[in-house]
Design a protein that fits this description.
Length: about 240
């Protein structure tokens, strides 16, 4: 599929197929992607096994790197399936490894921007807290409430706007800054599909992280890895859909 707007029959058909899918269709397509690219299941199986059996000290780093590698690989498989490029397993893995520093830098840029913007929005409440003192409990309580609400709202907004940074890097081929800018541009919060996908992903991951007792560590890890695999495909489709 040509990003420059090729109008041949094949490209027009692929654009139509991508753009006509609703949220349920995208989810069905995501599961079918695993059937067409069984290497995804193999890779995420390795990631899950490594996360479960790795030493506790290295577990967090391993899960983070594994998530980057797995999501990047799914991105490239999805791009291949949606007609944006034609690559084999070896090419995709090489590109994923080469892009790891770039996507890591892009995520760092996202975090820095999020911290700076949240601080700027929360600054007025911080000033009120500093000037009011502890004697005026009403003013302090209101300022703290505003501070928390503003911080949460801004962080959620930035989280949604930076949702497709990985895809902009792996599929779009962007650098750290351009990937962040691209994700910000393609995510439209007024679109129900984006809100549903971002919200459901956050809720599911949150339940997996905090909803298990201590004895469910292995099950939690496997479920989290599987959820990441599915939503990596969903995010890939959203990115391609928004950049056609």
């Amino acid at each position: 599929m040509d990003e420059d707007g090729c109008n041949c029959i094949r490209c027009r058909t692929e654009r139509y197929d991508v753009q006509r899918r609703d949220s349920v269709d995208v989810l069905v397509w995501s599961f079918s992607l695993f059937r067409r690219y069984p290497s995804i299941l193999f890779l995420f199986g390795l990631i899950a096994a490594a996360a479960v059996f790795a030493p506790v000290s290295a577990g967090g780093v391993g899960v983070f790197v594994g998530a980057l590698v797995g999501r990047g690989y799914v991105n490239l498989c999805a791009a291949n399936d949606l007609g944006k490029e034609d690559t084999d397993i070896g090419d995709r893995m090489v590109r994923v490894v080469r892009k790891l520093p770039t996507v890591s830098a892009a995520l760092f840029v996202s975090v820095v921007i999020g911290g700076v913007v949240a601080l700027l929005f929360a600054a007025p409440a911080l000033i009120v807290l500093e000037n009011a003192g502890l004697d005026n409990l009403v003013t302090v309580s209101v300022a703290l409430g505003v501070l928390v609400l503003v911080a949460v709202f801004v962080l959620l907004l930035l989280y949604a706007k930076f949702l497709l940074v990985h895809e902009a890097c792996f599929i779009g081929g962007g650098g750290p800054v351009s990937s962040v800018r691209k994700s910000w541009g393609v995510v439209r919060l007024r679109r129900v599909k984006i809100v549903l996908v971002a919200g459901s992903f956050s809720v599911i991951i949150g339940l997996l992280v905090f909803g298990f007792e201590d004895g469910g560590g292995a099950l939690r890890t496997v479920a989290s890895v599987g959820t990441t695999a599915v939503y990596s495909a969903v995010f890939s489709h959203l990115y391609v859909e928004r950049t056609l």
